[in-house]
């Protein structure tokens, strides 16, 4: 197999300045709604990129759980590797790959922790199985076998069979306050369309980028 020969043409149409909404959050919500309506698998899945204290970048996929004018929200174990990176460097990057629509969205911003009330409100809305999994897993820590994790899960399931599951102190969310948002639409002959929203003096500026 020659990987250099793997390519396809992007034919679903371009993106023009006149098509864009003035507010990038509204534009993102419009594209997200289209991704959901198109039946894409995991349309809220996003790559979160962080950097450790040595300057080594890391990426992983999480699910977007809310978006408004304040930012984009996801939840995680606050002792996880990504949380440790954010503690050291609050600047992160997000990426949404909506390949079937030939679209991508890239976001840069600053992460801030959610309040205890916000964490509790979301945690209690989750299925009980998800609550137990969050409590059972010390995310990013080394374990000897999967059975250790499954055993802890079953232990907690029995313990809280008839009671409410407390919000773990080591679990919570982050809000990414965007500083730039780029919308990418595939174009024919690799002449893709890219538009970058950048924040300056609380106002969003829009620029076209070369593909």
From TrEMBL:
Q: For binding substrate, which residues are annotated in this chain's numbering?
A: 7-10, 65, 122, 126, 130, 190-192
- Catalytic EC class: oxidoreductase
Cofactor dependency: FMN
The UniProt annotation places FMN binding at 60-65, 75-76, 81-82, 104, 139-140, 184, 194
Q: InterPro entries, per this entry?
A: Pyridox_Oxase, Pyridox_Oxase_CS, Pyridox_Oxase_N, Pyridoxamine_oxidase_dimer_C, Split_barrel_FMN-bd
Q: Copy out the cofactor comment.
A: Binds 1 FMN per subunit.
What is the similarity comment for this entry? Belongs to the pyridoxamine 5'-phosphate oxidase family.
Q: Report the function annotation for this chain.
A: Catalyzes the oxidation of either pyridoxine 5'-phosphate (PNP) or pyridoxamine 5'-phosphate (PMP) into pyridoxal 5'-phosphate (PLP).
Assembly description: Homodimer.
Know the name of this protein? Answer: Pyridoxine/pyridoxamine 5'-phosphate oxidase
């Amino acid at each position: 197999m020659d990987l250099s020969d793997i390519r396809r043409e992007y034919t679903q149409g371009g993106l023009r300045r006149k098509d864009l909404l003035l507010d990038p959050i509204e534009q993102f919500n419009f594209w997200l709604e289209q991704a959901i309506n198109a039946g894409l698998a995991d349309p809220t899945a996003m790559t979160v990129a962080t950097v450790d204290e040595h300057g080594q970048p890391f990426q992983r996929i999480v699910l977007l759980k809310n978006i408004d004018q304040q930012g984009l929200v996801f939840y995680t174990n606050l002792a996880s590797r990504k949380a440790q990176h954010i503690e050291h460097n609050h600047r992160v990057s997000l990426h949404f790959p909506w390949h079937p629509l030939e679209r991508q969205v890239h976001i840069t911003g600053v992460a801030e922790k959610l309040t205890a009330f916000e964490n509790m409100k979301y945690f209690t809305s989750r299925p009980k199985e998800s609550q137990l999994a969050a409590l059972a897993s010390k995310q990013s820590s080394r374990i000897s076998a999967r059975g250790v994790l499954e055993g802890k899960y079953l232990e907690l399931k029995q313990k809280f069979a008839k009671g409410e599951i407390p919000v773990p102190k080591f679990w919570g969310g982050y809000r990414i306050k965007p500083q730039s948002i780029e919308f990418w639409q595939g174009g024919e002959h690799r002449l893709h369309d890219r538009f970058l929203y950048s924040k300056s003096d609380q106002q969003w500026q829009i620029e076209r980028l070369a593909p």
